[in-house]
Every structure is written in C-alpha cells, then in structure tokens.
Write a structure and sequence with these properties.
By secondary structure, the chain is mainly α. It has 3 domains: 201 residues, Rossmann fold (3-Layer(aba) Sandwich); 62 residues, no CATH class; 88 residues, Tyrosyl-Transfer RNA Synthetase (Orthogonal Bundle), CATH 1.10.240.10. Helices cover 59% and strands 7% of the residues. A 3-stranded parallel sheet has the order 1-2-3. The longest helix is centred in the last third of the chain and has 29 residues. It is elongated and about 85 Å long. The structure holds tryptophan and iron/sulfur cluster. The site of tryptophan (TRP) has 13 residues, from strand 1, helix 8 and strand 4.
Length: 405
C-alpha cells in the first residue's frame, strides 16, 4: 500500500564524492536538480560516507572531490537559498539513524538488494565484503527517512534502494506506530480538525476503507497536509488511521526517476569515468578542443573527400544535444556529400560545449578564489539539515522508548 502523503513536496538526493563531475552528470542528474529546486523544498547533499564504502582503502579522492563537487553544484546554479546543500558526515545524526534502523532490518533484505552483488562483481579489484558495504542501502534509507522526503530523484540503478527504504519505513511504522489507545487518540485528533474537515476526513476514510477508493485516500492525505491545526503526532495518527493501520511516523518515499542522460562519451559509449571518455564540467577550453578533435568519426570516412554517414558517427550524437536544427541539417548534408570535413563538423560542438561551460567555469572560479564563501554556504546548509534531522531523530527515539532520563 502506498503510504506517501501525496502532498509531501520534499525532495532529497545525494551524490557520492568519488571524482570530478562531468558533462554526463550535468545533462543527466544536475539539470534535473536545477528544475526541482524551484518546484520543491530540496535537500541536496554530498554522500561522503557512501563514497567511503567503496573507497575506504584510499579515501584521498573523497576529500579531493567534496569541495569540487559543491563548487560544481553552485557554479551550475544550485541556489543555496532555494535548496539546502550539506555534507552527510557533518550531520552525524545520519549515522545514529542508520544504527537504529539496522536493529530492525532483516539481513536478507540487504543481501537481496541487486546492487550488492552486482557491484561486488563489477568492482572485483575492491574487497566489498564488508559490513559497511552491505549496509550501503540502509544508510541511504536513513538519509531519506531522516528528512521525511517524499520524492527522491535517482537513476534506475538506485530504485531498489528506494524500495528498501519503503519497506524499512513500513516495518518501522508497524513496530513503533502502535499505541494501546491508538483508536481513541485518533478519534480525538479528528475532532481537532474542525467540524467540516472532520466530516470530510471521515468520508474519505470510509470511502477508502470500504471501497478501496484511492482518490479518497489521496484526498484525505491532502486534507491532513493542508491542515494547520494538527501537531505532528496527531497528523501521524490520522495518516495511519486513514489507511487503517497505526501511526505513520516515517512516510514512504517515492523514486523520482531521473530521465536517462543521453550524454554520449567521447567514444560513442555512455559518458562515464570508468570508460575514460569524459569531459569534466570545468574542463579548460584547450582540453575540450583537443579531446573533441580526437574523437573517432564514421570509420568509412578516411579521406576528406570520402562521403560519410552521420548515423555511424559518435560526433553526430553530440549534435543531438548541442546543435540547432539548422546546424544539424547542414552537417547531415555536408557529411553525406563530403561538402564539409570532420574538423568543421566538430567545430560546432567545440563552440557549443565551450560556450555552455564558460559561465560555469567563471562562477566556479569565483568560488575557488573565495573558499570561505563555499565553507559558509555548507555550514549553513548543515545547520539547517541538522535541525531537521534532530527533530525526526528525537521523535524516533521517543517512539522507540529511548528517551529515558
Ligand atoms: N547511492 C546514491 C548514488 O550512488 C547516492 C545517495 C546516497 C543518495 N544517499 C542518498 C541518493 C539518498 C538519493 C538519496 O547515486
Ligand atoms: Fe561524423 Fe561530422 Fe565527420 Fe560526418 S562530418 S563523419 S558526422 S564528424
């Protein structure tokens, strides 16, 4: 059953700091973040502990990339007054929640997450037979549940982690959302809604429970989300009562699938650090030029006078991203008739990429020259995140019976 309050507009996502960001990240994940930050309350963080699960034997790349990553985010336009940006390890509450959740998470759930075995297979050179790596998706669950995020933008490979998070939330609510006098407390919370709203709530509840009317469920959830009179514990009760269970302390998040990045690499494969076919986000223009000039083209076009076929050329895929229709038409005709050379063809891309990067490089330079600004943006983001984290954690400890004096 879907227990996500449908109006839960909070978005949270993290990125591991394991190296430089490149154009693939930009055209895939980051552009998506840019549009989300204006639509939702967003939390974006550097997942440095997650980086450590695979780089514990050589963590230097982590410290090298943390601040670069933050600068990249700021330089592309992630706006610290619209989104809260922070570093996972600076909000150690994540570790506490991870530990608490670990008490009730069956080992089998973690062993069955597909990325566990997949990554061990893929990264054979690393010893990932560790406690930390097995717990990777549960740490991610803690990241998400800590902020009661409703939407988690991730790629396809992370969907199973969100699914695990939902199961963990459900189990948590099942274990700790029970109170002996739940029904009585729920009924008295309904009274606090006010007469009209109470009646509506009861109608929604009946329609959902008697007829399985999902719209009624959503209607009830929206009503609760909008009601200003409820304290948190009553709201949790009423979310739960609506569905027939106990309190919903941790709402279940949903994956917000990031559209697959179509960004090709320099060799026609997907752009990825492990293929060595990337252009980094702030690559110097000379290097961009050099890398693009060296790109392979249609193998049949050996001499300038040989006609080519754009569909057999990796450069053509870059035109899909960077060129206007006019340029594409011109290039297509020029290639097929040998009217243009590959150098001319690539120059369009070189111009477009360097133009796209110029403002990013420029803003990044300002932050690089003023590291104090970056540090204080992060300090503020961490403070805001920590405030939110502490609220959730204290509620969690209360329902788990850990706030004894
Ligand atoms: N595991 C994610 C990745 O590799 C990064 C991550 C860590 C994350 N914690 C998260 C993403 C919480 C979303 C929400 O991409
Ligand atoms: Fe590729 Fe452009 Fe050369 Fe044609 S002209 S082969 S599309 S680089």
């Amino acid at each position: 059953m879907n227990s996500v309050p449908s109006r839960n507009q909070r978005v949270l996502s993290g990125m591991r700091s394991t190296g430089k960001l490149h154009l693939g990240h930009y055209h895939g994940v980051l552009k998506n973040w840019l549009s989300l930050q204006h639509e939702y309350e967003c939390f974006f963080f550097v997942a440095d502990w997650h980086a450590l699960t695979t780089h514990y034997d050589d963590p230097s790349v982590i410290q090298d990339s943390v601040w670069d990553m933050v600068i990249d985010w700021l330089a592309i336009g992630i706006n610290p007054s619209a989104a809260k940006i922070f570093i996972q390890s600076r909000v150690p509450e994540h570790a506490e929640l991870h530990l608490l959740l670990s008490m009730m998470t069956p080992l089998g759930w973690l062993e069955r997450v597909p990325s566990y075995k997949d990554q061990q297979e893929k990264l054979k050179e690393k010893d990932l037979d560790t406690y930390g790596f097995l717990g990777y998706p549960l740490l991610q669950s803690a990241d998400i549940l800590m902020y009661r995020a409703g939407q988690v933008p991730v790629g396809e490979d992370q969907v199973s982690h969100i699914e695990l998070t939902r199961e963990v939330a459900r189990r948590f609510n099942h274990l700790y959302g029970r109170e002996p006098d739940f029904e009585k407390k729920a009924v008295s919370a309904i009274k606090k809604l006010g007469k009209r709203q109470a009646k509506l709530y009861n109608n929604f509840r009946r329609a959902y429970q008697e007829q399985g009317d999902v719209e009624a469920l959503e209607g009830g959830q929206a009503l609760l989300a909008d009601n200003q009179n409820l304290v948190r514990s009553d709201r949790e009760r009423l979310y739960g009562y609506l569905e027939g269970g106990g309190k919903i302390i941790l709402p279940e998040p949903q994956a917000l699938l990031t559209p697959v990045s179509k960004m090709p690499g320099l060799d026609g494969q997907k752009m990825s650090k492990s293929y060595g076919n990337t252009i980094s986000l702030r690559e110097a223009p000379e290097v961009v030029t050099q890398k693009l000039r060296k790109m392979p083209t249609d193998p049949a076009r050996v001499r300038r006078t040989d006609p080519g076929d754009p569909n057999k050329c990796p450069v053509w895929e870059w035109h899909q991203i960077y060129s206007t229709d006019e340029i594409r038409t011109e290039v297509d005709a020029g290639c097929r008739s040998a009217g243009i050379g590959c150098i001319d063809c690539k120059q369009h891309i070189i111009d477009a990429v360097t133009k796209e990067q110029a403002p990013i490089r420029e803003r990044a330079k300002e932050y690089e020259e003023n590291p104090g600004i970056v540090r204080s943006i992060i300090a503020e983001g961490c403070d805001e995140a920590r405030d939110e984290a502490r609220k959730t954690l204290s509620e969690i400890k209360r329902v788990m019976g850990l706030n004894y004096k």
